[in-house]
Amino acid sequence: MPLIKIRDLHFYRGNRAIFEGVNIDIYQGKITAIMGPSGTGKTTLLRLIGGQLRPDRGTIEVDGQNVHKLSHSDLYALRKRMGMLFQSGALLTDLTVFDNVAFPLREHTKLPESMIHDLVLMKLQSVGLRNARDLMPSELSGGMARRVALARAVTLDPMMIMYDEPFTGQDPISMGTLVNLIHRMNDAMDLTSVIVSHDVAETAEIADYIYLLSAGKVIEKGSPVQLKRSSSQWVQQFMQGLPDGPVPFHYPGDTLEDDLFSQKVST
Amino acid sequence: MIDAIRSLGRWGLSVFERLGRGHLFLFDTLKGVPELFLRFSLVTQQLFSVGVLSVFLILISGLFVGMVLGLQGYNTLVDFGAEESLGVMVSLSLVRELGPVVCALLFAGRAGSALTAEIGLMKSTEQLSGMEMMAVDPMRRVIAPRFLAGFISMPLLAALFSAVGIFGGFLVGHGLLGVDDGAFWSQMQVKTDWYDDVLNGVIKSIVFGFVVTWIALFEGYDATPTSEGVGRATTRTVVHSAFAILGLDFMLTALMFGEE
Ligand SMILES: Nc1ncnc2c1ncn2[C@@H]1O[C@H](COP(=O)(O)OP(=O)(O)OP(=O)(O)O)[C@@H](O)[C@H]1O
Ligand SMILES: [Mg+2]
């Protein structure tokens, strides 16, 4: 029984289909990666799972509950058990690093301040930023901000975490540490992890299962080894990052020829 | 032609849609207010940034408005030999009209625009979404405390404005123009009715505080999450608040002082 079960998901932005019939299963205790070209809707997918967006058709179940049928308070109760790392970090800009990480604890628990202090420092230690605790978010680099956000996402010890591009903007050393950390946390805390990422090598290294999305559909799924051996040209191009191949680089619409031609006519 | 009608229709629809969203937003905000009394520190912080930080502006403006009233009023009253009534004139103008209205306009410019910009920025930097995903409802955690703080601050600021204004009028009237201070104060006390004047003024300032804070928070919450969108929302807050204040002021005045 998967922890997250997505069935026949349809989602539209205006007339543009972002998802057309996506089925995804995410299993308890595993690291599942969602990959795909920029703009395919990976962030949108995470927001749908978190109940911030509503699907136009289809269902998303998390831990047996249909996310979009829950009452406000049940949805919030479920979210306490979901961690999410935003692509931008989404730190609260008027709070220090320490207070940001302490924020979920202060909102949701009645722990004494001394215990919050220790818990927060432990979480910050694990992302290597214990000594940055008094900085304001505006004083952090993008990569540091994302690590603080990661520490914050796990303070409530959720059952699952969704990472939106955790590796972007990390130098090779913190990248390695992060990959390790995500892997370790998944095993040690019995987390279920969903990683959205472009970093094929790092993601393939720790993912148990990978879904490749493109043009609103699941193009391919399987373990990293299976995907690397896939015979599909599309998969090969994406996994190896080749510039030429069936993966479209351009936002869908008129072809370049059409555009150039129509402009000549109008002038 | 058809296009013009069509865009008029679309404009009308979007106006009503926004109005609807605004009222739902208000409803959600008010739902979050009762539980704030259990965690009043959230409101206290906002009382500081919404209220206390506006005090300086309000004091200075109130003083000058009162001084101008003193000067202008004296020039008119002296022709009728009624300069003793300067105190009444100053206090009635301030308590009934200028206190609530000018203070609300200043409040919209100072605190309202800051609220819109703050909420809009929190939205565009995904801080509000981030809170939602941490199972913290931004309506309760961010919006409701600011709403309550604005609602509390505005009448207090208006009272300060009127008080300082009356003092400004006194400074000019007595200090500069030599109106008798006993007459100034005593006529004021006799002619300014606690119920008809002061209380009605307070009601006005409460209504304005409610509306301005609501507009400011809604504009921020509803802003297009880009820097340009937040900028436009801030402008809208000031413009819409001004319309709302002046329109409501006319209606309230008609209701309160109309049948005298
Ligand atoms: N608020 C919005 N309004 C309209 N369209 C949007 C909005 N947000 C995203 N989109 C569209 O939805 C599509 C998917 O966006 P999304 O952010 O999910 O992509 P992504 O896969 O996360 O891309 P990236 O890898 O670059 O982060 C994009 O093509 C974008 O144009
Ligand atoms: Mg994204």
- Summarize the biggest pleated sheet of chain B: none
The number of strands of chain B is 0
The strand order across the widest sheet of chain A is 6-7-8-3-9-10
What is the tally of helical segments of chain B? Answer: 8
Tell me the Rg of chain A in angstroms.
Answer: 20 Å
Largest interface: A-B, 23 and 15 residues
CATH topology of the domain at 4-90 and 163-230 in chain A: Rossmann fold
Based on secondary structure, the structural category of chain A is alpha/beta
Q: Would you kindly provide a brief summary of this structure?
A:
The complex is a heterodimer of chains A (267) and B (260). By secondary structure, chain A is α/β, with parallel strands linked by helices.
Plain-language structure description:
The complex is a heterodimer of chains A (267) and B (260). By secondary structure, chain A is an alpha/beta fold. Chain A contains 10 helices and 10 strands. Chain A has a domain at 4-90 and 163-230: 3-Layer(aba) Sandwich (Rossmann fold). Chain A starts with a strand and ends with a helix. Chain B has one domain. Chain B contains 8 helices and no strands. The N and C termini of chain B lie far apart (50 Å). In chain B, helix 7 (194-222) packs antiparallel against helix 8 (227-257). Chain B is mostly helical. Classes of the chains: A alpha/beta (267), B mainly alpha (260). At the A-B interface, helix 2 and helix 3 of A face helix 4 of B. Bound molecules: adenosine-5'-triphosphate and magnesium ion. Residues 42-43, 87, 164 of chain A line the site of magnesium ion (MG).
